[in-house]
Structure formats: structure tokens, C-alpha cells
What we know:
By secondary structure, the chain is mostly helical. The chain has one domain (3-201, 208-283). The chain has helices spanning 3-26, 32-49, 64-85, 91-98, 101-113, 119-137, 148-172, 178-197, 208-235, 238-243, 247-260, 266-283; strands spanning 117-118, 293-294. The protein has a two-stranded antiparallel ribbon. Helix 1 runs antiparallel to helix 4 (91-98), helix 5 (101-113) crosses helix 7 (148-172) and helix 6 (119-137) packs antiparallel against helix 12. The longest helix has 28 residues, at 208-235. It starts with a helix and ends with a strand.
Amino acid sequence: MRPLPIFTLTLAMLLWSSSFIALKHVLGVWDFGQVLFMRMSVAALCWLCCYRYLGNFRYQPGDWRWLALMGVLEPCLYFLLEVNALRYTSAGQAGMVCALLPLVVALVAFLLIGERVSRRQLLGFAVAIFGIALLGVGSGADEFAPNALLGNSLEMAAMFCAATYSVVFKKLCSRYSVLTLTALQAFVGTLFFAPFAFSEPWPADWAWQDMAVIVFLGACVTLGAYLLYNWSVTQVKVTLAAAYVNLIPVFTLLLAYLLLGETLNALQWVACGAVLLGIALGQLPARRKGAQAVTAEG
Length: 298
């Protein structure tokens, strides 16, 4: 694997990890719809400033279904689920749930396009799900996670959206520019979250530090991280790119501890171990002899 995709994937994971910390902060200032609307608006404005690099969009007949599905999955449903997950669970726990993405991608690829999924991957998925449930049950209500089980469940639903999006994006990027598709997501997100933003009164006082976090979320995470990841998907297999999501819980737990002061109890560390064990089981290479796999035919 070439060094550049490794670097871009790692940087994208670091930016995504930091978004959990940033979102946790701004959700204490604005309503979730206002946060998402401002975040997507910043990304859309950035794209307007560099519209010359987007290239010509040549629509292919019949692709409206795939383009619509891409936009609905991300940013609409994904961000809606994730930002509400962070209202109920801690940034560290949300980052741990996010590490399930590689296994969920394999499962979704099996369901949608018939890619082979091994029994070991299914076992790993089951173990990881057990760990996620234990992580939520083992968390008492506190200022960081008032209802961790609900929050982690919403984050899990967001992972299914992200996994399906990865498969759909891989299909579309063979016919459209990565820049064009990523920009389209920003404009769709701005329109989608506008009604949520203006359904609640806005706070009277805005601190520049809070606005700086919004700009970071829109320009560096929504624009930068997605662009880095989407470009990487065109260079490597989608399942390999998704495997780098394993870096997110490491980055997130470290940042949450350093910046938010979040900690985990003993049972939650055991739960984290179960999640990581499930992920490791799901990504071990299958045996060449005697390996059994579940196929689309059953």
C-alpha cells in the first residue's frame, strides 16, 4: 500500500475523532439542528470558494437513486443519529462504537452486493455487539453520558448508515468526481438541516471560541476529513479503508481524556476489550484450507 493513502486515512481518522470532542462542546451552546446547519453551511461556503475545482458534473441516466441514497445516508441520517447520540453518551464511548464500521461495512456489502463474509467476521460482529451493549449497561448516568445505552444504540445506527454510504460512494465514484460528490453532500446537508435549525430560538450571545469550533467542524472535519477519506477510497479497497476506523477509539479516548476529562470504569474497560476483540476476530484473514464463508446463496 502506498504511503500517501496511509497518511490521508490516518489524518482523516484523527479529524473524525476530534469531531466527537468538538460536538460535545458545541451541543452545550446550541441546539443539535443549529449545530448541524452551521457545520454544513461552513462546508458549503468552502466549496463555493473553490467551485472551479469541482469539474463538470455530467449526470448519468438512472443515477438519481444512488445520488439520493448517498445524500440521505450521509450527511442527513448519519449526522442526525450521531449528534443525538452524543447528547446521551460520552465522546469516548461513541468513538468506541465507531470502531465497528469495518465489520458493519462487510455485513452491508454482503447484504447489498453479495460480497463474501466469513463465519469469523460474523462471530467478531456478535462479540463486538456484546461489548457495545456491555459498555452502555456498565455506564452509570453522569454528566458525560446521561443515557449511554440509548446514545450507543444511536451511534450504532449511524454506523449502519456510514457502512451503506461507503458501498454506495464506491459505486458512484467510478462515474463522478470525488470532489463533486463530497461537495454535493455539503449542499444537501445544509438544506436538510435548515428546518431543524430554525425550529428553536437561537442563543443571544455567541462566543468566538464556540464559532471557531463550528468552523473547525465544517471546514476541517466535514470538508477535510470526508475529502481525505473519499479520495482514499478511490485508491484502496473500501474494506481496507474502513479498517482504519480502528484508530478512532484510540484517538477519541485519548482526546476525551485530555480535553474533556472523561474516564471509564473497570467494567467499561472490559467492554472496550470485548469490542476490540470482536473487531480483531472479524478482520483476521480466513484460513486458506477449510475456511467456510457465508455467500449470497446461503
